[in-house]
Design a protein that fits this description.
heterodimer; A: 380 residues; alpha/beta; D-Maltodextrin-Binding Protein, domain 2; ten-stranded mixed β-sheet; globular; B: 539 residues; mainly alpha; MetI-like fold; two-stranded antiparallel ribbon; 23 helices; disordered N terminus
């Protein structure tokens, strides 16, 4: 009988443990837990106003956004610490992969999100995010300072423009010269040296998708497939994300063996700033003809347990204080037009005279199809 | 009282209450998600799109041919060591068999990592890497399945053939092989099933052009956000598998023939002429299976890649996956270690609770018990990706929005692990002599007490065995976890896959270090379970 009692006790223990596990998780201050109760029984926004204020919220961001627990805090983190000092709300960073991966995860968790605010959905992915209803619309304070052209992309304030830049092919100047080649200047030059080029998978990577869109903008709906066939036959290399391409396969930054990489127009100033030995000229160049304009957005995640804190964070993210840090730390341009750019950035970053672009509606309509066709051409 | 002693039945309410737990668990976490998935596949309108897409057929083709190739090679490579261990007794035979079993239960991601470690970089992502991993895994299946039969084949048939002048090769081809055919067909069926639904290995070793259906389901659902298309592919895989299982069951029935099986204990020491072939057969299998594991450990101490200096950098920096100062990979290897331990503990607890309740119910209930038994086995035959995907799209709306619940991953693991608890305990419970209970009842024990005093003590060891297996399964589970884990609470296999997917020597070495930890944990558990089983057999 003793053993039976023990067994029943164990079963009971398991049952209560499951239950209490559940309870404790909705009380705990972790983001997972806070979001959980919102989906269950809270009636959304007003829930947080009535209850005790949340003391920490989570900012979901792509992998190349600096982590929040570095030994030497990144200036973006220092700015966020000021937000904490003002509001009493701490901001935890959750790196969730490359933009495509991060968005897919946000879609799968729509309504019961992994964080409270998401950073870095760009214009090529934006319509997908809006359709999946991952955002809680919010008209931020301080929109007057934002470029009106960007705001046109989000007429219902689903998300807020936070930065912009150009995705362009970069080249390692020394490696290209060493191979006895002229600096590449066009898409055709890239195709001629496809075995030197590394691109990202447009299914998972935001610059990868931007570069695919660039080729579509350049060659049109009828011509881009031929161009990619040429690249594939020439031996183009494909990675899942930007970090792998740039830090893994690019000759300059990764010690890899490819001297052409899809990256950002603002990558060269980064190389100057972070060079091991001081440089007076950028070691990498930008192929201006390949540049595609990319605008990144931040938004409140639908289903957050702390909507008012999340909204306050959005306001802060587009404030001059935070936007000032963006160029030298994320290497894109601030969306806030009042911010003055640092001289290193102005000297070495490329703003192409005319970037390639595509109509957002066309992108929304064809993106999935284009990615499928691209996959068949390049990876099939 | 005397009446109850005659029938000696457990109180109905008790049995019903006990049966409720596993039945509800199965319905809620397996049947419902499964039906949801089917519904999504049919309802999404994605059927036409998916079937019209040429990539669908390319993926199906790759899935099929690599499974056929893996199965064929595993059988060819596995038959020689099978012959050696089933016919001969030699030093280290038991160790060899344990090693094969240990490799078989190692997490798929660890085997993938081991293959990356042992192959030169140029072959890391080739189709040979995938086939190699599948072969290393499945040699154990050949040796175990075919070996059991081979051990018991009556020798007189072979002696007769030899007397009639047949050479050794002729004897093997014309006598032994036909007799082994049912066992070989069974092994082939198992290996095909494993490799057709291969996920972890292909995630680690495959490239964009080399994906199995499992990986494509995962990619469409979690990378491209195409839930409908992913559901269609998952169902397509189910259909293909159902057809194959049906066909192989029929084929096996056709091959089955009755024969007098001999006593398995007649293994002999190899004679002089046999020593070389036995040594070669065992030695080559040992190298094939052992080399990747040795390479795995070795490479974890070479932070700058093969042929570079040894160092502890990967082990020292295991808590920090930095791309460059200030920029970090979105994973925390050390946190993954903790998450895995916690998850495995909970999964084991769930699996044991469900398994024990199920054993009690199955052994006391008649037909409904059999139904529960079959039902609980179903998750084993369902691909892990299907389970995880189904759960993800089922538990996403209030009041069952459990996507953020920390217990969802352990529940998914318990689904796959509970059958092992049931299997290891059910036989023992069924083997209890009913007279024992009658005796207890005669001595005045209530039915419940009679049942408890006779059954519970013998269940302890099989439950420990089942719990060990459940823990091992949970530690290595990758398919369902890929869908259910939240960013920031990844388990070890997820962390290993992400580290391996990155270029960078230190990340690779860190992945090898984590794989080493996971491999050691799994092997220790399996050895403990094995020892426990041995002791039980001897006593």
């Amino acid at each position: 009988m003793k053993s039976l009692t023990a067994l029943l006790f164990a079963l009971l223990l398991v049952a209560t443990a499951c239950a209490s596990d559940d309870d404790s998780s909705s009380e705990a201050s972790s983001d997972d837990a806070t979001t959980e109760s919102s989906g269950d029984d809270d009636d959304g926004e007003d829930g947080a106003d009535e209850g005790p204020a949340v003391d920490s919220i989570t900012l979901v961001a792509y992998d190349s956004y600096p982590a929040d627990d570095l030994d030497e805090p990144n200036p973006l983190q220092i700015a966020l610490d000021e937000f904490t000092a003002e509001t009493g709300v701490e901001v935890e960073i959750l790196n969730a992969g490359d933009t495509g991966t991060m968005l897919a995860k946000a879609e799968l968790t729509a309504g019961n999100p992994e964080g409270d605010v998401i950073w870095g959905i760009d214009n090529s992915f934006l319509s997908r995010a809006i359709d999946a209803e991952i955002f809680e619309p919010y008209a931020a304070n301080g929109l007057d300072a934002i470029d009106p052209a960007f705001l046109e992309l989000v007429p219902n304030h689903e998300a807020t423009p936070v930065d912009f830049g150009d995705v362009c092919v970069n080249y390692d100047i020394a490696a290209v010269e060493g191979a006895g080649l002229d600096a590449p200047a066009s898409f055709e030059d890239l195709a001629a040296n496809a075995d030197q080029l590394v691109v990202q998978n447009p299914g998972t990577s935001s610059p990868g998708l931007a570069f695919l869109l660039a080729t579509i903008a350049e060659f049109g709906e009828d011509g881009w497939e031929d161009y990619w066939t040429e690249l594939a036959e020439g031996g183009v290399s494909v990675t899942d994300g930007w970090t792998d391409a740039y830090y893994g396969e690019f000759t300059w930054a990764g010690g890899g063996d490819r001297s052409l990489v899809v990256s950002y127009g603002s990558s060269p100033p980064f190389e100057v700033l972070f060079a091991a030995e001081p440089l007076d000229a950028a070691p990498t160049g930008v192929v201006e003809a390949t540049c595609f304009r990319q605008i990144e957005f931040a938004g409140v995640l639908a289903g957050t347990d702390a909507p008012s804190e999340a909204q306050a964070l959005i306001d802060f993210l587009i404030s001059e204080r935070f936007q000032t840090e963006i160029p030298m730390n994320l290497f894109v341009f601030p969306a806030n037009q009042d911010v003055e750019l640092a001289p290193e950035f102005v000297d070495f970053a490329t703003i192409p005279e005319s970037s390639l672009s595509l109509d957002p509606a066309t992108i929304a309509e064809n993106r999935a199809d284009w990615i499928d066709r691209w996959t068949e051409i390049v990876a099939g | 009282m005397s009446d109850s002693a005659a029938h000696n039945r457990l109180p109905r309410g008790f049995v019903a209450a006990v049966a409720l737990l596993p039945a509800a668990f199965l319905l809620l976490f397996y049947v419902w998600p499964f039906l949801t998935l089917l519904g999504r596949a049919i309802g999404a309108g994605a059927v036409g799109d998916t079937l019209a897409r040429s990539s669908t057929w390319r993926v199906l083709w790759f899935t099929t041919w690599q499974a056929v190739a893996s199965t064929t090679i595993a059988l060819l490579v596995g038959l020689a060591p099978t012959w050696a261990v089933s016919r001969f007794e030699f030093a280290g035979r038991r160790f060899f068999l344990s090693l094969l079993t240990a490799v078989f239960v190692l997490p798929t991601v660890v085997i993938g990592a081991a293959i990356v470690a042992v192959l030169p970089d140029s072959l890391d992502r080739s189709v040979f890497a995938i086939l190699g991993a599948h072969v290393v895994f499945n040699i154990a299946v050949v040796v175990r399945t075919v070996g059991t039969m081979w051990e018991q084949l009556p020798r007189d048939l072979e002696h007769a053939a030899a007397t009639l002048g047949a050479s050794r090769w002729q004897t093997f081809r014309l006598v032994v092989l036909p007799l082994l055919r049912p066992a070989i067909a069974a092994a082939a069926g198992i290996i095909f099933l494993f490799t057709f639904t291969s996920f972890g290995v292909v995630r680690v070793l495959g490239t964009t052009g080399r994906r199995t259906l499992e990986v494509e389901v995962w990619r469409r659902a979690t990378q491209l956000g195409d839930i409908g298309g992913a559901a269609v592919l998952a169902v397509l895989q189910l259909v293909v598998l159902a057809v194959l299982v049906g066909w192989s069951t029929r084929a096996q029935r056709r091959y089955a023939r009755s024969l007098q099986l001999g006593d398995p204990s007649r293994r002999e020491r190899p004679r002089r002429r046999e020593r070389l072939p036995v040594g070669l057969a065992v030695g080559s299998a040992l190298v094939l299976v052992g080399a990747p594991l040795v390479a795995l450990v070795e490479r974890s101490f070479r932070p700058n890649g093969p042929a570079n200096a040894y160092g502890l950098d990967a082990w020292r920096s295991i808590d920090n996956a930095e791309i460059r100062p200030g920029l970090r990979l979105g994973i925390d290897p050390l946190g993954a270690l903790q998450n895995s331990a916690t998850t495995a503990a909970w999964a084991t607890l769930f699996a044991v609770a469900i398994g024990v309740a199920a054993v009690v119910a199955i052994s006391t209930l008649g037909r409904s018990g059999k139904l529960l038994d079959t039902g609980l086995m179903l998750p084993l035959g369902t691909s892990a990706v299907t389970i995880g995907f189904g759960m993800l799209i089922t538990f996403d709306t209030p009041p069952v929005d459990w996507r953020a619940s920390p217990w969802l991953v352990p529940i998914g693991h318990a689904l796959v692990a509970a059958p092992f608890v049931v299997r290891s305990a059910l036989g023992v419970v069924r083997g209890i002599d009913p007279n024992q209970r009658a005796a207890a009842a005669t001595l005045g024990a209530s039915p419940l007490r009679a049942w408890a005093t006779t059954t519970l003590p013998v269940m302890r060891r099989p439950i420990a065995t089942g719990a060990g297996l459940a823990a091992a399964i949970s530690l290595g589970e990758f398919g369902a976890t890929s869908f259910l884990s939240r960013t920031g609470s990844e388990t070890l296999p997820i962390a290993i896959e992400r580290l391996l997917g990155r270029t960078g020597r230190l990340f690779q070495a860190q992945a090898f270090a984590l794989s080493t930890i996971l491999a050691i944990a799994t092997i220790v558990i399996v050895v403990l379970v094995d020892l426990g089983g041995d002791r039980a057999r001897r006593s």
